[in-house]
Every structure is written in structure tokens, then in C-alpha cells.
Design a protein that fits this description.
The radius of gyration is 20 Å and the shape is globular. The chain is α+β, with helices and mostly antiparallel strands. Helix 2 packs across helix 12. It folds into three domains: 8-103, no CATH class; 111-116 and 121-127 and 200-336, ATP-grasp fold, B domain (D-amino Acid Aminotransferase, Chain A, domain 1, 2-Layer Sandwich), CATH 3.30.470; 130-196, ATP-grasp fold, A domain (Dna Ligase, domain 1, 2-Layer Sandwich). The strands form three sheets. Strands 8, 9, 10, 11, 12 and 13 form a six-stranded antiparallel β-sheet that branches. A four-stranded antiparallel β-sheet has the order 4-7-5-6, with helices on one face. The longest helix is centred in the last third of the chain and has 17 residues, at 260-276. The protein has helices at residues 25-29, 34-46, 60-69, 88-97, 107-114, 116-125, 174-187, 236-240, 242-248, 260-276, 311-318, 323-336; strands spanning 8-14, 49-55, 73-76, 133-136, 152-156, 170-171, 192-196, 201-209, 213-215, 219-223, 250-254, 281-289, 295-302.
Length: 340
């Protein structure tokens, strides 16, 4: 903090159900909120004046808190509203319209990245490799276009964190295709994106900044115990179920064996993706790297999970940025972002 102004920071969080008026921070953090706990602990070390607010289904408490606390910046950890992750950009829009500096991605980037088909169309237009895909809206039958070749991954169009992705998402026949499309339409009340499965390494590339970007060391999801002839996909369980991960030897680690020229190509591709999708603040780009060294875009994640043990923070640490300093950088990036 030497030479830095002490800031007033409002840490904005979300809840999955209404909170009672006298809820405590300890009660909130007890509900599996590792990111929020880590961020607040980092602010304790940084010395900024902080307050927190948890929202569920009303922005009125936010308006009141902004008026009363008058923060210099909002540290935005709220990625859903009324349990709907599609509303994350609306929370940010509220802050943008009121001219309040905030951390992470603006509303345009959140909107473009949330819609997996739009992001792929933009990047495909700019000659970045994307899987062949089709969108099947709710209310339409799951008919596979002939140009879409098996095997295919069938996923919710606008979900995050692999929600709705399971081994059954990997389909190899038209019957399986129809069944999975109908399942997602009904179970998740979501349109479908169906895309050709790209065989290759699953890479996660963390990026920080607005105009001038830093790309952190590349992480990889390794499938150690999955048989060679089985699909290797980042399902919901593969990301979040520890017992499942142990059973199949799923490990997130730093990518090894990437030639310097290939690593530079991956970094440059991710910088382009970050700018083309108007991401700012910080983000993570998910890629597939084929045996022929082709780099395929899978999806972009603005405001990825910030818990200290997760990929983004671990990549920053590998690059020499300790966790409190990472949080400080995100704050300063939010304050310097130019948004309209």
C-alpha cells in the first residue's frame, strides 16, 4: 500500500435465497463461499476500508449502500440475480449507468461471452478456430444438420461452470442427439448449443488487464485415469466433484511440454479473443489444443472464480503475483477501465 491511496471498497456478493435482515458475514461465508472469504481476507491485508453487501432479488439495497457508504470502487463478485446467471450483466449495467467504478468485465463483454454461439461467430469471423456448431432453441426438435459431424457435445447455450454438461452430453448417434437436446430444453429451460467434439488437450489461459494485457502461465485439466478411447470432457462433476475427480485422476496443473513458439501463439490468440469479445478486468479463455497444434476456442469466462486455490489465482502466483497483490491489481484495473 506504500504510496497508494486507501480506498473505500464495497464487496458485492450474491445469495441463492433471500437473506434475513440481521444476517452476519460469518453466516454467509459458512455457505461454501471460498472466493468471498479469500477476497475479504486479502482486503484485510491490503488495508483498504471495506464493506460488503449480499443481494438476491432486489437492487434497492445496493442503491442504498452506494448512497450511504459511497465507495471508490465496487469489487463485483455477484454473478447471478434471483438464482439466474443470465442477469449478471444487468447488475453491471446498473453500476455503469450510475457511473460507479467496479471490478471485472463490463456488460457488453459479459453479454457476448454468455451467449456461446455469438462469441463463436465473432471469433470464427476473425479466423480463430472454433468447433462447427448449431443452436437449437427451446420449442424446436433436436434435428442434427448434416454438416455437423459426430461425435458432438450437446450443452446449454448460456450456462457457466460446466453446468448441464455430463458424460451424456457426448453423443454419437441421432437418437442420443435428440434425447440430450430435449433433456436440456426441459431440465435446464435453456436453448442448446451442439458442437463438434474437439479431441485434444484442455487448456485454461488466464488474462488480466484492460488495454494492456498480461497472460499468466497456462493451466491444463489432465485426465490421468480416463481410458484413451473415452471422451475427455470438462463435465460439471469433472470440475466440482472431488470424489469424481479422484476416481478418474482429474488434475488441474500447469501445462507442460508446450514449445515456446506454440506457447506464444496460444498467448497471442488469447489476447485477440479477449479484445474481440470486449472483455476487461480479468478473464479466463478455455481452449482445446489438437495433436496437430491447432488452437480451438471453446469458451470465454469473464470474472472467473477468484478463490486462491483455483486456476486464475494459481496462474497469477506462478507469474509472481501473490494473492493480495492480485486483488489489488483487479481493483486498480476496475478503477481505470473506460466504460460508457
Amino acid at each position: 500500500m506504500a504510496g497508494r491511496k486507501r480506498l473505500k471498497v464495497l464487496v458485492l456478493c450474491d445469495a441463492v435465497e433471500p437473506t434475513h435482515p440481521n444476517h452476519t458475514l460469518a453466516e454467509y461465508l459458512a455457505g461454501d463461499r471460498q472466493t468471498e472469504a479469500d477476497v475479504l481476507q486479502a482486503f484485510g491485508k491490503l488495508g483498504h476500508q471495506t464493506d460488503h453487501l449480499v443481494i438476491f432479488d432486489s437492487l434497492e439495497p445496493l442503491r442504498q449502500k452506494l448512497e450511504g457508504f459511497q465507495p471508490d470502487v465496487v469489487f463485483n463478485l455477484a454473478d447471478q440475480f434471483r438464482n439466474n446467471r443470465a442477469f449478471d450483466q444487468n447488475i453491471v449495467s446498473f453500476l455503469e449507468m450510475h457511473g460507479i467504478p467496479f471490478t471485472g468485465c463490463g456488460s457488453t463483454g459479459l453479454t457476448l461471452c454468455k451467449h456461446k454461439a455469438i462469441s463463436k461467430k465473432i471469433l470464427g469471423y476473425h479466423r480463430i478456430h472454433v468447433p462447427e456448431f448449431v443452436v437449437i432453441p427451446r420449442g424446436r426438435k433436436g434435428v442434427r444438420p448434416k454438416r455437423l459431424k459426430f461425435p458432438i457435445l450437446v450443452k446449454p447455450l448460456k450456462e457457466e461452470a460446466s453446468y448441464g454438461i455430463a458424460q451424456a452430453s457426448f453423443v454419437e448417434t441421432d437418437d442420443q442427439f435428440r434425447e440430450r437436446v430435449q433433456f436440456i430444453h426441459e431440465k435446464y429451460d435453456n436453448d442448446v448449443i451442439a458442437e463438434e467434439y474437439i479431441e485434444g488437450r484442455e487448456l485454461y489461459v488466464s488474462v488480466i488487464g484492460n488495454n494492456r494485457l498480461q497472460v499468466f502461465p497456462i493451466r491444463e485439466l489432465v485426465f490421468k485415469e480416463v481410458p484413451p478411447d473415452e471422451p475427455k470432457i470438462a463435465t460439471y462433476k469433472a470440475k466440482w466433484d472431488e470424489e469424481y475427480r479422484k476416481r478418474w485422476g482429474l488434475v488441474n496443473q500447469f501445462a507442460v511440454g508446450l514449445e515456446p513458439s506454440l506457447e506464444r501463439a496460444i498467448q497471442q490468440t488469447c489476447r485477440r479473443i479477449y479484445h474481440l469479445l470486449t472483455i476487461d478486468g480479468y478473464g479466463r479463455i478455455d481452449l482445446r489444443l489438437t495433436a496437430n497444434r491447432e488452437i480451438y476456442f471453446i469458451e470465454a469466462n469473464p470474472n472467473p472464480v477468484l478463490a486462491a486455490e483455483e486456476d486464475f489465482a494459481q496462474s497469477a502466483l506462478k507469474a509472481g503475483t501473490e494473492y493480495p497483490q492480485l486483488i489489488e491489481r483487479i481493483v486498480r484495473s476496475g478503477m481505470s477501465a473506460l466504460r460508457e
